[in-house]
Amino acid sequence: MLTIKEIRKVQSLEEAYELNQKKTNRIIGGMLWLKMQTGNVNIAIDLSNLKLDTIEETDSEFSIGAMVTLRDLETNAALNEYTHNAVREAVRHIVGVQFRNLATVGGSIFGRYGFSDVLTVFMALDAYVELHHAGIVPISEFAKMPYDNDVLVRIIVKKTPLACAYLSHRQTKTDFPVLAVAISHHHGKWQAVVGATPHRAAVIADENNILSGGLNTESTKKFAQYVKETVKTDSNIRGSAAYRKHLAYVLTKRALSSIGGIDA
């Protein structure tokens, strides 16, 4: 059971940051994973007064506040048009609509969970996180950082010419993924982001320019094989390391085939 002594709705990010420096205090989002933990929280820091619950679009970027829900991501027409529905595909399997109406993107990203569909798909984009203290950091770098007591303010997705697809495999609907793959092409480079390995999502770039000549049956197979050989996987209750490597090949090939209009 989680015991909370006090809930405080902060009036500024600085107030939230100062409170969060104490180990006995915690920032709360949708309270979906946090409530399953055991422990005592002195002050639960509520960010809901800071207007961080909107997705704003400009000509150059999307700005996604930390308190935006996963359901907001799923239903935002502009964001999904830009990502070719990859964001919707990444979140639509997460438990159920009621859950996604509460779970926040800030909690999903800051947690950097190994099973996170949300982290996986945003790492495939030209995306950044804005932290109150550390500033703006590329999300691929943020994913590798150790946990600290900073405050995640928003996620920034830069608008660049983009090809993108997201696929995952689950043993049952609404369960955590056994493996997730996001394929993207921007800034002239192809990459695969593989999540639920079961470690934090990792980027596998097309360093050998396997796809530089375009997507076709042979190039998609070769890159899928490269991803399979490169990705680090381990075993847990959802699948073995070898099974995850097999899935990495299959999902990468299928995602590339869907982007290129190739029969998988």
TrEMBL record:
Residues 1-162 form the FAD-binding PCMH-type domain. Keywords: Flavoprotein, Oxidoreductase. InterPro entries: CO_DH_flav_C, CO_DH_flav_C_dom_sf, Diverse_Substr_Oxidored, FAD-bd_PCMH, FAD-bd_PCMH-like_sf, FAD-bd_PCMH_sub2, Mopterin_DH_FAD-bd. It comes from the Bacteria. Pfam families: CO_deh_flav_C, FAD_binding_5. PANTHER family: XANTHINE DEHYDROGENASE FAD-BINDING SUBUNIT XDHB-RELATED (PTHR42659:SF9), XANTHINE DEHYDROGENASE SUBUNIT C-RELATED (PTHR42659). GO terms for molecular function: FAD binding; oxidoreductase activity. It comes from Megamonas hypermegale. This is FAD binding domain-containing protein.
